[in-house]
Design goal:
Length: 190
């Protein structure tokens, strides 16, 4: 399974593509950032992000796009622009017929570090370790996108295990936390 993880933003959109092999190993395919010029208007920036995501999807042909759910901060204007960039990500995925998995920041942190309030540094070090990279991936936006991709790969692995463990073959919905998947597996097998 190939997952495109995206950390949306209007100035910088991080991306990371990972492959999850049947034996459970997750390997990095590519990562980086799509940057838009600061002098560009918002519509121009969104168009650039869409065009570059479209090219990435066409080139690397992911099976799914994983994106972090919108995190509302104190800066409402930033939240709106991130939401618009997120919409462009969802549009690009839909245009390619790809499913989209969404995860909250605590879900991503829990999947990567095992602690839902992990620091950025802890996240980056674990991304480096999980992907066997020689250095921490930079910039931060790319590391964050890789974390979202890994989160989905691990969550999908858990959902596949739950499907195998259940009698009816159903699985929890995309974006269900690992803990919820585990509790569903226990509930269904008792």
């Amino acid at each position: 399974m190939r997952t495109l993880g995206v950390d949306p933003g209007t100035a910088i959109t991080g991306y990371g593509i990972v492959d999850q092999w049947a034996h459970g190993q997750t390997v990095v395919v590519t990562f980086g950032c799509l940057e838009t010029p600061s002098g560009s208007t918002l519509p121009q920036r969104l168009h650039m992000i869409h065009a570059e995501l479209d090219a990435l999807i066409a080139r690397f042909r992911p099976d799914v796009v994983a994106v972090e759910q919108l995190f509302f901060s104190r800066n409402v204007q930033t939240a709106f622009s991130v939401g618009q960039a997120r919409g462009v990500v969802l549009l690009a995925a839909a245009q390619h017929g790809l499913d989209v998995a969404e995860y909250t920041p605590p879900q991503v942190k829990l999947a990567i570090v095992g602690y839902g309030a992990a620091t950025k540094e802890q996240m980056q070090r674990m991304v480096q370790r999980l992907l066997s990279l020689p250095v921490i991936p930079t910039p931060d936006d790319a590391a964050d996108a890789l974390a979202v991709a890994i989160c989905h790969a691990q969550s999908e692995g858990m959902r596949a295990a739950v499907r195998r463990a259940t009698r009816d073959g159903s699985a929890p919905p995309v974006g269900t936390s690992i803990e919820a998947s585990r509790s569903l597996a226990v509930d269904r097998t008792e």
